[in-house]
Structure formats: C-alpha cells, structure tokens
Amino acid sequence: MLKLEAIKTYYGNIQALKGVSLEVQTGEIITLIGANGAGKTTTLMSISGIVPPRTGEIYFMGKPISRVNPDKIVAMGISQVPEGRRIFPYLSVLENLDMGAFLRKDKRDIQADLDYVFSLFPILAERRNQAGGTLSGGEQQMLAISRALMARPRLLLLDEPSLGLAPLIVKQIFEIIKKINRENNTTIFLVEQNANLALKVAHRGYVMENGKITLADSAESLLANEAVKKAYLGI
Ligand code: ATP
Fold it and tell me: At a CB cut-off of 8 Å and minimum separation 6, what does 149 contact?
C-alpha cells in the first residue's frame, strides 16, 4: 500500500532523513520506533506531503506522491494525527470533527462516520458542544484521532499518541487503535517513543537511528531482540 524508496528529507541545510526505505501492506499496523530526534516525525511529514523529500520517492497505492500537495494526499486516503494533537481549541468537538471531513461531499456517509467515531469514543458524543480546548489531554487525543478518521483514511498516520497521557488512558486509546485496524481494515502507521507499547499492538516494526532505518522485523522479534531491549525497552 505504501512504499518509501530511499527518501532524503531536509530542513534547509539540515538533513533529517538519510535514505529511508520501508513498506506497509494493507491492513497492517506498523510502528516506527527510535530515540528523540531520530527522524520519526519527519518520516510522517514526508508521507503526508508537509515536508516532502528532496530525493527518493513515496508510492501510495502504486502512485508516486512525493510531489503531491498535502490536501490531495488526504483526499487520496492518508490522514495524519499530529504529535501534540493540534485540535482547534476554540471550536467545539463537533466543529473539530467537521474540519476532518472538509474535503468530503458525501453528507450521508459523513453522518455515519460521525456516529462511528462517537461509538468508539462515547465521551466525545457527550461533549460534542464543548470547546476542544476544555477537554482533558486524553480526550483531545481521542478527538484528534476521530478528526483524522472523519476523512475516511485508508492509511492512518499516528504521531506519538501516548505522549503525556496517563497509563490507563493510553491503554484505552491503544485498544481503540487496534479496533479501528480490525473493524475497518484501516492500515496504521504508528510512531512511538514508547516502544514497548507500540510493539505490543503492531504487526511489524522498524527501528530508526539518526535518519536511517537500522532494523526491520516482526513486532514479536523486535520485542525479543537484545539490542532493542537494551536501547528502547529499558530492559
Ligand atoms: P521526536 O520524538 O523528538 O519528535 P523524531 O524521531 O520524530 O523525534 P524528528 O522530529 O523527525 O525526530 O527530527 C529529526 C531531525 O530533524 C532532528 O535532528 C531534528 O532536530 C531535526 N528537525 C526536526 N524538525 C526540524 C525543523 N523544523 N527545523 C530544523 N530541524 C528540524
């Protein structure tokens, strides 16, 4: 479904990605783990077209997308949930969700998707008229995921969904991530600093160091890998 071929991405003169290649198959949950500054967020930004790669190519459903505008990439079926959630604090829950569907014209299906996200996160239905900024951190993460789902993505990019949240909330959110994958066959690309958690929900994982992929394996094997345990699992 998604293929990155030797992509190199820069911020001005700073090279953040030094030739990243990876693949994601339809229906998978894959995770990209690595230390702070390794280039995980930049990989997501490259896929979503916000920071396009300077060289290399990204293919989505067989089509090259590295020169495609971010809004077109959303329309093709890729939605990103940014790090730090970035919901609209002064808009209501419902208005935030409407923003996620802004490229769509199929009004009846939008209502069905709204019902679906409210079934995933009933608390959002209760708070539908409340301003986004008044929600708790966990509820804001739920809203950010729901907003991305309102674009009906085939591929959902999640950047650090566990960041700054209490363990119980994180557990709840990860259960829902599995559910979204299972029920809708939505493919999920998960970036996490919490490698232990990420490898427990993912089918496969990639390890990134200093702008490069250094390991690729099944999540199970990565969890058992001595080097991974030492560097990322605190064992
Ligand atoms: P984190 O978990 O902190 O988000 P990360 O693995 O996602 O880490 P990136 O945010 O992708 O890492 O950063 C990769 C490299 O690019 C780092 O060296 C970082 O300093 C640099 N970088 C990131 N954003 C910018 C920017 N806007 N301008 C310049 N350099 C940047």
Answer: 79, 100, 113, 116, 117, 120, 156, 180, 186
Q: How far apart are CA 147 and CA 81, in angstroms?
A: 8
For ligand 1, whether the C-beta of 37 sits within 6 Å is yes
Q: How far apart are CA 217 and CA 175, in angstroms?
A: 22
Could you tell me the distance, in angstroms and rounded to a whole number, from the CA of residue 10 to the centre of ligand 1?
Answer: 10
pTM over 0.90: yes
pLDDT by residue (tens digit) across 67-97? 999 999 999 999 999 887 788 999 999 999 9
CATH code given to domain 1-77+156-164+187-235: 3.40.50.300
0.85 surpassed by complex ipTM: yes
| Strand extents, DSSP E, the chain | 2-11, 14-24, 29-34, 55-60, 63-64, 78-81, 155-159, 187-192, 204-209, 212-218
CA dist., res. 197 & res. 199, Å (int):
6
